[in-house]
Amino acid sequence: MEVWSEFSRRPHTERFPGDTPEAEAETAIARITADPDQRLLVGLLDDRVVGAAHLVRAYVSPLHSEMAVHITHLHVREKSRRHGVGRALVEAAVTWAEEKDTGHILAAASSQSRDANRFMARLGLTQMAVVRCGAVATMRSKMPVEPPAAAMVNSRNHRSVGQVLAQRRSLRRAQSRTS
C-alpha cells in the first residue's frame, strides 16, 4: 500500500468520492490477476515491498501485428533507489516477455523524470513516442465551438451535442467573469 499510495498521490490521478487507496488497490489487483495478459510485479528490498510495475501484453500499436510487453507504473520508492530494484523489475518483465514469446518491451516514464529516462536508456530502451494526458473537461474547453468539417456534412442544420455544451460553457465562463 505504501508504494501504491506514493504513486497514486501524483497530481494526474483523479479519485472518485468514497474511493480509498485500499479499495482501489484491491480492485486493481483482482482485475490484473484475472487477466492472463497482465502482471503486477513487486520489488522487495530486505523483505519490504519498495517497488512495483504493471505489465500488459498487447500489440505494439494498433497498426502493428507484433506483440509487446508494456511496462507501466514502474515505481521504486525514493529511499530504495539505486539498489537494483528497478533493474530486477525490468528483468522480470523481460523474462515474462520471453515466456510469452513476445519480442518487444515498451516502457513508460514521466517526461519530467530525468533519472527514470536515463535508467531506461541504459537498459536499451529508446524513445518511441511522447504520451500526454489531459482531463476531458479541460480538453473540451479547448475545442472549437464549430464542429469539424466532416461533422458539418452529416448535420448541416443540426447542432451537435458538443457544440451546445461548448457554447453553454462559454456563456457560463463569461457570466462568472462579470459577476
What string gives the helices and strands in order? HHEEEHEHHHH
Give the overall shape: extended
Helices, by number, come to 7
How many E strands? Answer: 4
Terminus-to-terminus distance? 45 Å
Which blocks of ≥5 consecutive residues have pLDDT under 50?
A: none
Question: What order do the strands of the largest sheet run in, or round the barrel if closed?
Answer: 1-2-3-4
3D structure, described in words:
The chain is 42% helix and 19% strand. The chain is built from seven helices and four strands. The chain has a four-stranded mixed β-sheet, with helices on both faces.
How would you summarize what this structure contains?
The chain has 179 residues and is an alpha+beta fold.
Key attributes of the depicted protein:
179 residues; alpha+beta; 7 helices; 4 strands
Write the layout of secondary structure elements.
Elements: H1 2-8, H2 21-34, E1 38-45, E2 48-59, E3 67-76, H3 85-99, E4 104-107, H4 114-122, H5 136-142, H6 149-154, H7 161-178
Parallel strand pairs: 3-4
Antiparallel strand pairs: 1-2, 2-3
